Amino acid sequence: MKLRALSPSQYLGSDVVIESDSSSVIELATCLLPADADEVAFAQAAFEWVRDQVAHSVDAGDHRITLSATEVIAERVGLCFSKAHLLVALLRSRNIPAGLCYQRLRNGDGFVLHGLVAVHLDGTWHRLDPRGNNRVVDAQFDLDTERVAWQADPSVGEIDYTEVWTAAAPLVVDALTGAQDALALCAGGLPDRPA
């Protein structure tokens, strides 16, 4: 899939959600690989750490809400969006352009939004899904063949949005900020579109 993105330099900033300049993000990045590590090697290490070391709220049955990169590091739990925020922050902390992507996926009788990461490596954009693997999900770091948790099926109304966002979608931020319980939010309250 061809992603629609701005210039890679637009995907390097920090904000209150993607806190790429925070000390805890920088410290974690340093623990993963030295600062002079190859970009691809670092991107893979960061992806695998977020995928495997931060529990997905639903898989863990954890009610806590996290939003920002530093909250995810502190709590070690989050929904797909929060895990994506941390991965983008880690990548940007090493000056690797990264943004957010979304999918609209069927969920029961309706749809929910799913958060992914797009990273600019080797001159092109690649989607990564740090959601976390389980018995039905096998997302992997692969720059040749996309290996995300779910493939959108347009025949049932699912959508792979092609835009690479420089910041978290406001509807996602509002949903997470306004929630008290991650599991209740997933049961009904997640947005079904990024904007």
Q: Which regions are unreliable across 5 or more consecutive residues at pLDDT < 50?
A: none
- Quaternary structure annotation: single chain
| Rough outline | globular
Which sequence of strands runs across the widest sheet? 5-4-3-6
Radius of gyration from the CA trace?
15 Å
Share of β-strand residues: 15-25%
Total number of beta strands: 6
The fold-level CATH name is C8orf32 fold
CATH C-level category:
Alpha Beta
Mean pLDDT: 97
The helix/strand class is: alpha+beta
Q: What is the correct CATH architecture?
A: Roll
Helix content: 25-40%
Number of domains: 1
Largest sheet: 4 strands, antiparallel
How far apart, in Å, are the first and last alpha carbons? 21 Å
* Element-level helix/strand string: HHEHHEHEEEEHH
Question: Tally the helices: what do you get?
Answer: 7
Explain this structure to me?
This protein is of the alpha+beta class. It has one domain (8-187): C8orf32 fold (Roll), CATH 3.10.620. The chain is 33% helix and 17% strand. The strands form two sheets. The chain has a four-stranded antiparallel sheet with strand order 5-4-3-6. Strands 1-2 form a two-stranded parallel sheet.
Observed structural traits:
33% helix, 195 residues, four-stranded antiparallel beta sheet, two-stranded parallel ribbon, globular, C8orf32 fold, alpha+beta, single chain
